[in-house]
Amino acid sequence: MNADTLPDTLLRILADKEAELRERAAATPIGEMERRARDVGRPRDFTGALCDAVAEGRIGLIAEIKKASPSGGLIRDPFDPAGLAQAYEAAGAACLSVLTDAPWFQGSPADLVTARSSCALPVLRKDFMIDPYQVFEARAMGADCILLILAALSDAQARELEEVARGLDMSVLAEVHDQRELDRALGLHTRLIGVNNRNLRTLQTDLATAEALVPQIPADRIPVAESGLRTPEDVRRMAAVGARCILVGEHLLRQPDVTEAARAMVQAG
């Protein structure tokens, strides 16, 4: 990771994350967090759930639960993680993604715990992962998968975090925004490669990003199209280039009937 090339917003988020990490580690040492992570039992099969959905002819929807975002402001109020998890499950979503970052997304670990305990779906901890401590923390709170944002990590960091996750039998979603990041992600073991259509500098979305990158992902990996998907036609555009798994949050969360909106995405393929 070269800090000089990162957008200001991402730099500020990572600085906040480092400060938060120091506080958390001071309160609960990493040895204790690792013990908790190993005591919670086996994770749900996040990658397998996506594969099963696609094998059954559905779109593998990772449905996101978040209260707010830097680009969208407050997204849903009142905010009910349990109700949202149940609505997504009823719609046929394969997995959940839950924001746990507080300063920028108004999330918390409690949101993930509540959502996961309210359904049977595997859950991704959506946060800015920079240290092995957070991987143990994710498993301790019940997460079945972690997100690795290649733009925020060096290759060495990404490999280290993936190794810790694999040691806990967790899945890893490696997120990329451009060709260089995709090349780096393919050096990891994970099958899950997320292509984020959001430009980190402008925060605008363009589905052409996934249309360019997804066809370059090898057949033994699983492409996941992220950001900017709002209609069944958008989903079909992604499926047409090989991304039959998608991660959708803000669009679904702004709909009055979350179940119906998510079902339309699942059945679009």
Describe the structure in brief.
The chain has 269 residues and is of the alpha/beta class. The protein contains 12 helices and 10 strands. It has helices at residues 8-27, 30-39, 46-55, 81-91, 109-117, 132-140, 155-167, 179-185, 208-213, 232-240, 250-253, 258-266; strands at residues 60-65, 68-69, 73-74, 95-99, 123-126, 145-149, 171-176, 192-196, 222-226, 245-248.
Topology:
Layout: H1 8-27, H2 30-39, H3 46-55, E1 60-65, E2 68-69, E3 73-74, H4 81-91, E4 95-99, H5 109-117, E5 123-126, H6 132-140, E6 145-149, H7 155-167, E7 171-176, H8 179-185, E8 192-196, H9 208-213, E9 222-226, H10 232-240, E10 245-248, H11 250-253, H12 258-266
Parallel strand pairs: 1-4, 1-10, 4-5, 5-6, 6-7, 7-8, 8-9, 9-10
Antiparallel strand pairs: 2-3
Helix pairs in contact: 2-6, 4-5, 4-12, 6-7
The CATH class name reads: Alpha Beta
CATH arch. level architecture: Alpha-Beta Barrel
- Could you say what the CATH topology is called? TIM Barrel
Within the largest sheet, what's the order of strands? 1-4-5-6-7-8-9-10
The number of helical elements comes to 12
> N- to C-terminal separation?
36 Å
Count of discrete domains: 1
Q: How would the global form be characterised?
A: globular
Q: How many strand elements? A: 10
